[in-house]
Amino acid sequence: MDLIALAQQTLNGLSFGALLFLMASGFTLVFGLMRIANLAHGAFYLVGAYVAVFTVGLTGSFWIGVLAGTAATAATGLVTETGLLRRIRGQEMPEVLLTVGVLFVLSDLLLMSFEGGPMALPAARGAPSGALVIGSFAYPWYRLFVIGVTIIVGIALFLLQRYSTVGAIVRAGVDDRETAAAMGINIDRVFTGVFVVGAVLAGLAGAIGAGMLSLSPDTGIDILLFAMVVVIIGGLGSIKGAVIGAILIGLIDTFAKVWIPELSYFTIFAPMALVLVLRPAGLFGRVA
Fold this sequence. Notes:
By secondary structure, the protein is mostly helical. It has helices spanning about 5-35, 40-60, 60-85, 90-115, 140-165, 165-175, 175-180, 185-210, 220-235, 240-260, 265-280; strands at about 130-135, 135-140.
């Protein structure tokens, strides 16, 4: 592999890792605070992606499509948390099974509405297009746009979690939600807010990811598996861990599919198993 191909594959890995970070950061926030392995997170990705594709096809505007996709996902997350999960709060197994049900119901509804063929975000005004060309090196601007958006979102999440009052409340809830509730924090409102933020991150990943990856009703489950591996490697509730895990998995998956495609799943899950053996809480996670 020459240097140009190496640089292109590295950027492919980083752009895929950027999508994984958007997915994993929402998943780890919900998992860290609410102790729910929210498997409906994959369905939220699909809602964001399909609504964005439909809206872009209707309006021809990329930004209206992205906004509609994230807004629809926020509404879906709000209804899921307040209408379903809140009724069985604290019952871990029913919560997980309920999110599995939401995943399959939403996936089937989207399959019925959009059929099962592969789809992609259509060309639209406002969408990054063309390629960055430097000598004989060329790379699509859209993938660089995905990396840029993710960097902005990641910095915003870090600052919000580390320096804001809301971040302090969320960290208190992650560390000890019973004590946080006893100190007067409305933990129900915090739960709902974090769940909706997690859904918005998945919807944003779906809306912009539809311009980079092929979209089908199975896509949500596939990318959810990758996001869960990222969370396990990075550590529960850690944004820094989600960043490192997403970069690692994005690069490993991209290069494995080029060099040893027959072992691409092994190369993803083997690092996860190794981390679980050496550091059960993940690279940056803390033992509860």
